[in-house]
Amino acid sequence: MSSRRNRITEAEINELISKLQSLLPEARRRSSGRASASKLLKETCNYIKNLHREVDGLSDRLSVLMDTMDTNEAEILQSLLRS
């Protein structure tokens, strides 16, 4: 298989960077055009890390909440979360 087939064009990279920028809340708020690709990738990594921390925090809070519930309430909540 030729390595040429796996190459991505500059236009494709620019399109992917643009799509990524549209997904990041901080990048969308920025009114001054496009950020550099490296800055955008750093922002993406930080955003994902923050999302992980937020999920961990919410999971901890949910565990504490479920520990205070009786069995029926906890089962109802678990069934709602699975839906």
What features would you describe in this structure?
The protein is an all-alpha fold. It contains 4 helices and no strands. It has helices spanning 10-23, 25-29, 37-68, 71-82. It is elongated and about 55 Å long. 0% of the residues are buried. The mean pLDDT is 86. One of its GO terms (biological process) is regulation of growth. Keywords: Growth regulation, Transcription, Transcription regulation. GO terms for molecular function: protein dimerization activity.
Task: Provide key terms for this protein.
single chain; 83 residues; mainly alpha; MYOD Basic-Helix-Loop-Helix Domain, subunit B; 76% helix; elongated; bHLH_dom; transcription; transcription regulation; Transcription factor bHLH135; PRE
Quick summary of this structure?
The protein is built from four helices and no strands.
CATH architecture annotation: Irregular
Largest sheet: none
> Beta-strand percentage?
under 5%
Structural class by SSE content? mainly alpha
Please provide the count of β strands: 0
| CATH domain class | Few Secondary Structures
Instruction: Write down the overall mean pLDDT.
Output: 86
Secondary-structure element series: HHHH
Helical proportion?
over 70%
Oligomer: single chain
CATH topology: MYOD Basic-Helix-Loop-Helix Domain, subunit B
GO molecular function, one term: protein dimerization activity
Family: Belongs to the bHLH protein family.
Organism: Platanthera zijinensis
InterPro entries: bHLH_dom (IPR011598), HLH_DNA-bd_sf (IPR036638), PRE (IPR044293)
